[in-house]
Each structure stands twice: as structure tokens, then as C-alpha cells.
Design a protein that fits this description.
single chain; about 425 residues; mainly alpha; about 75% helix; globular
């Protein structure tokens, strides 16, 4: 049954069927092949349960926040300000890409939104200043993944719901690893630019210009403080903090006189499109989990892992290898929802902390977002370009794939970095 499920999943993925449909078809196939129970009749109840999950209400709110953030010019001013502070380093504006992704991630909660927003602002600068195109594109694709590691992370909310873990604790645990990951990305750019002696034209700015640009960093910092601060001050839940973040960005946009009707209509339209896609994936992933449990696959996998008699470390390494391979072929949100209910109990039984594994899981999901052939951030960045093939983005992202493996090693060796603020 395990082999049949894996082969069927790979076949459906390679047929380029939409992800939600893949999980729905797979669930129905497993139901009819491996059990006589009419599990498909529970689809309505499963859908209702997913749509009425209060915590998931944060998803459309964070998407709307990011849309307004981009369309009112706050993101562009943030990128310009950061470029004046970090572009003197070897690698120049690529450091601005990472820094902007880091700051934007602390407001958006979405990796795709982060990559799309910063990519829209940064890619026109690549040819203008003569940067190594592949590495420049890779820095945007990789930097965008920080959106699901740094709080407020949509994927972290989903992990918390699936494992019944504290979302505020997950957010606190991810802060230090998220900043360390951003630093490793910056180090990757420094090493790459120094080794290959890149000849990009670096943007220069006087100290006066740098100090003057700091005012453009205030709006994203305000939004970040409102979202994260309201959670830990006990004022709001993670879902309520998302609503407060939307109110904060609306107030900032209105104060800047950029809150026009067309801006809001475009933001609402894109929010509804993205939310509809995500919720459809969530519904069919929940249904697939229901069928897997009803057909006995979850129990079979747990029994298989138990019979292998692996040590805790080897169990963890097996899980990491599983996600590295699966992430190459499966969209990340559906991968999380379809596998965490099965994998997480195995990891917890091996003695690993659920909060620590949540951070580790986010890095594995980040890795999946920049590994071909399904790495979604690769296609987001490619979609912004006006010329060239996807191969340029893939090659450019490879050094950052190695950086993520280094981050995973650091988390395994120094798990205490997730407990700094707990």
C-alpha cells in the first residue's frame, strides 16, 4: 500500500495535474482500492471542518496585508532604504534582496508573497548594475523562503494546528534560526562574490542619505511590532494579530494618502485568488489524511518505522531525507498537510521537542521551495523575468540549498537556538 501510494502520487504530479486535484484523486483511488468503507462520503464534513478552523482565518488576512504592503509603495521604499545600507558589501544589492526578504517576511507570513514582492522590485536592478544574473535570481528565490520561517508564518500556523502545538511558542522559537538563516544566506553571497570576483556596479550612498532613508524602514517595523507585539503582550491571538496587522497597514496607507479604491480592489482580488487556491489544497489534503488513516496507511508507516529500530538521530535523518526527496516533487503546503499527521508522531516518539521540530520542518519546507522540479519560488522568480529560462534560477539557487543544509546541521547540533526566547 505504501509503494502504491507513492507511485500513484508521483504519476499524478508528473501529469501536471493541479495539486488539489492530485490529492483528491489519490484519496478517492486509495478509498476504492484498499478499503470497502465509503470514506468519500465524509468529504463534506472534512471540508466544513477545514473551512471553519478559526486559526486558519489568519491566512487570508496575512495575504491581504502583503498585497496592501506592496501596492501602496511601502515595500519599494523599504528596499531602496536597505540597498543604501548593505549594497557596499561584496555582492551589493543581493544583500539588499536578503535584508528586504527578512524584513518583509516579518510582516507577510508568506514565502511566495515575499519572493514575488522583492523580485518585482529587485530584478529590474540586476541588468542595470551588471550583477551575476543566476546568483542574483537565486538570492531572491532563497530569500523569499524566509517568509515561512520568520514570524508571522502561515505555514507555522498550519503546523501548529496539525500538531496541536503553541503557535506563539513556535513564533518565538523561529526568531533566532530565522535570523541565523538570513546571515548564512548573506555569507553565501559574500563567499560566492569574492571567489568569482564579480564586477557588479555597487550603489553608493553617503551617511546622510543612509540616515535619511531610515524613515522608510519605520512602516514595516511598525507592522511587525503590531503583529508580534500584540501576541506576546497578551492582547491578541495569532489570528487576531493578523487582523491588527491589516488595520495597521491600512492606517499607514491612509496616512500616506495611497489608499485608493483601485489599490484596495486589486488587493482584495489577489487575496481571494490566493486564498481560494490555498483553501482548496487544505480541504483535499485534510480529506487525503482522513482516507490514509481510514485505509490504515498511517498505522503501516508507524509500524514500519518502529520495526526498523532506528536510534532517535537516525530516525530524524530518515525524516529529513524523506522530506528532501518529497519536496522535489510535491507542493509544500500540501506536503505539510498530507505528511505531518503521519511523520510528526514518529518524531515525537523518538524524543524530539514538537516546537524544535516545527522550526526544523519549516527549513525543510523552505528547501522544497527552491529544489526542482516543483520548487515554487523558482517559478515565482522566473515568472517575473522578461527573458531567460528556468535553468538560470535553478543554478542560482543551488548555493542556497547548501546553505539550508548547513542550517539544518546547526539546528541538530545546537537545538538550544530555538529556546532563546522561550
Amino acid at each position: 500500500m505504501i509503494a502504491f501510494t507513492f507511485v500513484a502520487l508521483m504519476v499524478l504530479v508528473f501529469l501536471a495535474i493541479p495539486v488539489a486535484a492530485v490529492m483528491g484523486v489519490l484519496a478517492l483511488t486509495l478509498n476504492f482500492v484498499f478499503t470497502d468503507m465509503p470514506l468519500w462520503r465524509a468529504l463534506g464534513e472534512v471540508s466544513w471542518g477545514a473551512f471553519t478552523e478559526y486559526t486558519l482565518l489568519a491566512i487570508p488576512l496575512y495575504i491581504l496585508l502583503g498585497e496592501i504592503f506592496l501596492r501602496t509603495g511601502i515595500a519599494e521604499e523599504m528596499y531602496t532604504a536597505l540597498s543604501k545600507w548593505v549594497s557596499w558589501l561584496p555582492g551589493g544589492l543581493m544583500h539588499a534582496n536578503i535584508a528586504s526578504c527578512t524584513l518583509f517576511s516579518a510582516t507577510s507570513g508568506s514565502s511566495v508573497a515575499t519572493a514575488a514582492t522583492i523580485g518585482t522590485l529587485a530584478i529590474p536592478q540586476q541588468k542595470k548594475y551588471g550583477y551575476n544574473e543566476r546568483l542574483f535570481l537565486g538570492s531572491i528565490a532563497a530569500g523569499g523562503t524566509l517568509g515561512i520561517l520568520l514570524p508571522p508564518s502561515i505555514n507555522m500556523i498550519i503546523y501548529g494546528v496539525l500538531t496541536n502545538s503553541s503557535i506563539p511558542q513556535l513564533y518565538l522559537a523561529a526568531i533566532v534560526p530565522g535570523l541565523v538563516m538570513a546571515a548564512i544566506f548573506a555569507l553565501t553571497i559574500l563567499v560566492q562574490s569574492s571567489v568569482f570576483n564579480d564586477t557588479e556596479v555597487r550603489i553608493t550612498a553617503t551617511w546622510g542619505e543612509r540616515m535619511a532613508s531610515l524613515k522608510n524602514l519605520v512602516p514595516p517595523l511598525i507592522i511587525c511590532v503590531v503583529i508580534i507585539g500584540s501576541i506576546y503582550a497578551g492582547i491578541a491571538t495569532p489570528t487576531e494579530s493578523a487582523a491588527l496587522g491589516v488595520l495597521a497597514v491600512l492606517a499607514l496607507a491612509a496616512f500616506r494618502r495611497k489608499l485608493g479604491v483601485q489599490v484596495m480592489l486589486s488587493a482584495f482580488e489577489n487575496t481571494m485568488r490566493t486564498t481560494g487556491m490555498i483553501m482548496l489544497i487544505i480541504v483535499f489534503a485534510y480529506f487525503l489524511n482522513f482516507v490514509l488513516s481510514g485505509a490504515g496507511l498511517s498505522g503501516s508507516i508507524n509500524a514500519l518505522m518502529s520495526n526498523l529500530g532506528l536510534s532517535p538521530l537516525w530516525t530524524l535523518l530518515a525524516v529529513i531525507a524523506f522530506y528532501v526527496v518529497l519536496g522535489c516533487f510535491m507542493e509544500t503546503l500540501s506536503m505539510m498537510i498530507a505528511t505531518i499527521p503521519i511523520v510528526a508522531p514518529i518524531v515525537f516518539m523518538a524524543g524530539f521537542d514538537p516546537v524544535w521540530f516545527g522550526v526544523t520542518m519549516m527549513i525543510l519546507v523552505e528547501l522544497a521551495m527552491i529544489t526542482p522540479p516543483i520548487g515554487i519560488n523558482l517559478y515565482v522568480v522566473q515568472g517575473i523575468r522578461t527573458s531567460g529560462g528556468i535553468g538560470d534560477v535553478i543554478v542560482g539557487a543551488l548555493p542556497f540549498v547548501l546553505a539550508m543544509f548547513a542550517m539544518l546541521a546547526l539546528l541538530v547540533l545546537f537545538p538550544g537556538m530555538t529556546r532563546v526566547f522561550l
